[in-house]
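User:
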Amino acid sequence: MVSIIDYDAGNIRSVEKAVSHLGHECTITSDPGVILASDHVILPGVGAFSDAMSHLSERGLCDVVRDVTAKGIPFLGICLGLQLLFDDSEESPGCKGLSILPGSIRRIPSDGVLKVPQIGWNDLKFPRKSRLFEGLDEGTFVYFVHSYYLEAANKSDVSSVADYGVQIHSSVEHDNIFATQFHPEKSGDAGLRILSNFLRIH
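Assistant: Predicted structure:
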C-alpha cells in the first residue's frame, strides 16, 4: 500500500492518479497508523511553507513523517513536500521545517528576465547516480512550478540539479528519503518512470 499524506496542501489527486496508473494500490490519508504501516509514503504539496507546517502540526503529522523516514520506509517528497524536509525557508522567516535533512529553501532571484515563479519544463543534470533516475538520460526534461528552491547543506544528498538563474538542487536521495522539487506526476513518461522507480524500492 502507498500512502499519500493528506494535510490540505493540494496536488494530491494528480499524484494519486499517477500512482494508480502505475498499478499500485494507494490511499490518501492523515491517519498515523495507516501511514506507518505503508510500504511507500508520498508527501506532495503546493502552497506556502508556513501554512503547510501548521497543517502538518495540527494533524500530528510532523512526528509521523520523522518516524516514517527513521523506520526506513521509502519516502518521497514532491515540490513543497521536498522543501518541508529541510530546516527553514526564506518564504516564511522564523518558521522551522522538519529538519530531517540539513539545508535551506531560498527564493529564486528575480532578474527581470526569468519569470518567477518558474512554471514549465527544465532539464536535469545528474551529479551522482540515483535510484529515482534509473533508465533516464541526463538532460531529461521535467515540469516545475515554484518560486523557491533548495540549497542543500550536504551536496552528497543532491541527486539532480537544474539551472534557472541559479543552480537549483532539484532532487535529493538520502538512504530511504527521496524528494523532488519538480512534479513527476506532471512530467509525462519521464515522470512516470521516476515514480515507478520509487515504487520499486524496498
